[in-house]
Amino acid sequence: MSFTLQLFQFFVSGLTTGSTYALIAIGFSIIHNATGIVNFAQGEFVMLGGMFMITFYSVLKIPLVVAFFLAVFCVAVIGLLLERGPIRHARSKEILVLVMITVGASIVIKGLSMLFWGKNPMTLPPFSGETPLLFMGAAVMPQSIWIFGITILVVTALHYFFRRTMTGKAMRAVAASRRSAALTGIPVDRMIFLSFTLSGALGAVAGIILTPITTTSYDVGAMLALKGFSAAILGGYGSMPGAVVGGLLLGVLESLGAGLISSEYKDALAFLILLIVLFCRPSGIFGGGRLRRV
Amino acid sequence: MYALIIFGLPLFLRNNYHLMVLNVAALNIIVVIGLNLLMGYAGQISLGHAAFFGLGAYLSGVLTTTYGFPIWPTVILALVVTGIVAYAIGIPTLKLEGHYLVMATLGFNVIVYIVMIQLDAVTGGPSGFAGIPHFRIGDFVFNSDRKIYYLFWGISILVLLLSLNLITSRVGRAMAALSHNEIAAKCAGVDTEKYKINIFVISAVLASLAGSLYAHYITFISPGTFSFFYSLQVVTMVLVGGMGSLWGSIFGTVLLTLLPELLHAVKDYNVLIQGLILTGVLVFFPEGLFPGILEAWRKRRVVVHKRSVSPGREP
What we know:
Chain A starts with a helix and ends in a 14-residue tail after the last helix. Chain A is globular and about 60 Å long. By secondary structure, chain A is an all-alpha fold. Chain A has helices at residues 3-35, 42-59, 64-89, 95-117, 142-164, 166-176, 178-183, 188-214, 221-235, 240-261, 266-280, and strands at 133-135, 138-140. Chain B has a single domain (2-284), classed as ABC transporter involved in vitamin B12 uptake, BtuC (Orthogonal Bundle), CATH 1.10.3470. Chain B contains 14 helices and four strands. Chain B starts with a helix and ends with a helix. The interface between A and B is large, with 42 and 45 residues.
């Protein structure tokens, strides 16, 4: 295989994982914009998406499309419960406390998943076969195409939702300023609640499409959350296009690093890139300069 | 009083395993006190303390075992090296705020962890590094859990005293101002940058100290101990004990170190119960469990007091 072709191959596989990082990063951004907190349970949403899909599709033999939506629905409900339960009833609304509550919740979810699904890694069959397609000389798995397609679809839908619908605009208003949003009559509580549900659904989608190429187990959530979080920061925390670019960039750099430098240091490389970006441009690639009010 | 309980306790414990758990608790206390100084008094969060803990452990473990360095000077050397590393990381990182700082320390933790695994020629890789010598003073070797108990708890009490001293000093007041309102502190003439970095270095050095002690106690280290989950665990201990309360830190650490041991019986539910406790404490006692209990106790006493006083007032 020629070197350029090899590069192209790494690029494609990087874009594939990068797409799922982007979805996770968007989930982080949505909750961050609504509440200012970092939801550490985001990775658990991803894990749950894969797990529910395995139960519905592989175990209960529900048709693919129905199982997909059912799994997304279940995880969305869990996101909703997270907000309705611990987050809403927290005695302190301090950011750090809320963030640590999501950490606690993620441990609870992990513990429950271990009891339900056991400790063994599980996998899903790819959506449509395993014969690689040749695209400009590079082998592309059909699952990668599914991942691209679904990611593009979801991002477009979200873009439409946030730009064109009343609810989406209301959510953006809450992100811009919670107080002014409340003053204009936007039900801020409902928007926060919606943001958790939406993030749950997004996490689930990422988990479902990723599982056929990586396998899943009850403890994959933390690493995925870290990657998604890095992607979000890389692109500028809280920015949607930033999350997409950050996710894809992280995926590609990781894949190139693994292929060209060393596959053992793949994860370390991802974080090294992140640290460098943080030191050189703390607000991320797309983040504007922030002014702080005293 | 505290010292009395600590040093009297081993007399009643026959089981070496119990002593070992307490020894680990003493090490955790050292790390948690350091982290609490950073979180509670400098208002900064680090999710990278496992990395400093690991640096201390691996530096003194590898240098003494592979290269035959003498133990005590190596521990000091490890402290100095970790301090320098922390300083180097601290300068750019502490300029960042909020999530970014958490992420940068977290990223550092992951990098150190992966290097520990991959550099197996030096660190023994994922299977760990064994044969680290015990501590000794002259001919006296610290090789039993009981001897180590006195050494570790002695050191942890020393660390506690020094830290209590630090927070009541001028530096401590500057730090408290810094954690309340950084900008106001700056306006009052506190060199916030310098204090933040110094406290970060102190905190990292304490973690490194605990790491070195750990290495020479267990005599075997493996990367699993120093993963990001340990960082999370110590942050949890600080939060459960209450940020800014050093006595609370001791309470939180002992509680959370003993808890998994008590839960061994219900193995599969261990993770779940730990998560539930963490979530529950944070939801209902955001100030920390220890201050929360103290507060509840005080309120109760006030109520009881009022009750006993009020009949007299009535005509």
